[in-house]
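Continuing the batch. This is chain 6 of the set; chains 1 through 5 are on the previous pages. Same settings as before, nothing changed between runs. Recording input and output for traceability.
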Amino acid sequence: MSSIKSYLNNFSLSVDEIGAKERASSLASRSIKTESKLFALRTAISMIDLTTLEGKDSAGKVHAMCQKAIHPKPGDDSIPHVGAVCVYPNMIKTAKEAVGNSGVHIASVATAFPSGQYPLKLKIEDVKRCIADGADEIDMVISRGEFLSGDYDYVFDEIKEIKNTCTESAKIYSDKHGIKHDVHLKVILETGELETFDNVRKASFIGMMAGGDFIKTSTGKVQPAATLPVTLVMLEAIRDYYDETGIRTGMKPAGGIKTAKDAIAYLVLLKETLGDEWLTPDLYRLGASSVLNDILMQIEKQKTGYYQSSDYFSLD
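Output for chain 6:
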């Protein structure tokens, strides 16, 4: 097989860091009013991956989170369900039972999350088990050490192997349960460890070329996590890859998105870079569990003219 470096040569890999920061800042400062703001806030909710990834996670906590995911504001049918709930592998069955046929997807972190420091054989077994238990989406972490040492073929081959495992395991699940079961792979770059914008762009292309359905900024366990400039770099890589191949790749900024204002800024960035076709949970997610109640409060403010207390909303 040809080296992945030869494929990377099809793309410009250099990023104007100052220009990226200035453009991201300019886009984030745009003001959105009234009905457009309500649309943006509801759209943001539909894209949230409501997440709990703690050692103290329990079946009760996951079940409560799933109810919040299905009905972010009980009694208000204008509020959509979130895109997915994201849990550790041991909680997939609990989450699957809790969301039922609501349309909320089950995502699970795998492949030795968050470090990625396991042999490939164990990572593959991890993914197989997650899908057998009912996961719709796998969030894998790339091997940052191999990437930073310049072994791009290793990173590419590992992602491709995990993607193939997702495809094969999804077929096994479909045959066993008599239903069509597609599994999407989100490739976590852990941009806070990649050191430069050039590296972020390069890793983005590797993730897409290897078959990732989404590229994702962060695990949320490393700082900095998602930032607007890094997200812009990744969105531009998605745009350039689409222009070259016709393949649409999803994007997920994760970590550090804490307010409704933050969420809207990320949506503006998406719309201005990739257009309306990407304004769907099928192609854009927000790893932003703590932001949900703030968005709900902002929606109430837009509708009534005043804020409700956070006490009116359940904890995420």
